[in-house]
Amino acid sequence: MKQAEGARVRPARVKPPRIIHPQDRRSQWWWALGALLLALVLWQVYQLGRVQGGYDGRQANAEKQHLLKELGKQQQRLEQFQNEAARYQRQAQIEQQAGRELQEELVRLQDEQARLRSEVKLLKGLISSGAGSLYIKDFVLQPGEAPGRYRYAFTLVQVKESVDTTRGKLVMKISGVEGKKKKRLDRSEFSPDGNKAVKLEFKHYEDVRGEITLPEGFEPRELTIEFLPRNKELKKLQTTLPWPAEEG
Q1: What DSSP state is assigned to residue 21?
Q2: Which of the four CATH numbers 3.30.1330.60, 3.30.2310.20, 2.60.40.150, 1.10.8.80 does domain 134-242 have?
Q3: Is pTM, for the whole model, over 0.70?
């Protein structure tokens, strides 16, 4: 296409090529060499300052290793102390439990001592009052599981010092009414073993327990306990107790 007539042509600027002379390359190498020398000088100054300041790399490393070794030892000692503390704590707990058990045992012994003192006082009173050498202590009569059945318990005590062993027969009787008539039952009629008497042999006291089964229609009024000793030094014991009323 032809250029339009009368149009102005703008001249273009031409950038001449840059020519690098060998002298310019030598100046760049000199700058690089100067920077390297400057770095070496600074490093020497740094090392000189460390030496003059008393820093020794080998000694510092040795001290670090020594500190690490001491730290390990201290950690082992700490673990030992912790284990010992746990052991002492367990031992203290065991001793505390043992102390509580000893305290409970002491209270029980004190109660037993008070009971024995009370019994000794009672026995001395019986001896001094001339109440006899045989007597019934702590009599208990309780209803059983079925109508007409009962459980009894008491202690037969002998307080005469000259008698070492007490021997004899225990007899029990129940007085009451059947219909409109009075009636008395021997032990063989109400005891499950069917024996009329029980042979006993004891030092100072004997705990007696048993069951009673009453015949249907019989209403008890009194219970009589007799002990017939074989010892010549002892007299016959006979105690009559009122039959307790039924709880409604």
Answers
A1: -
A2: 2.60.40.150
A3: no
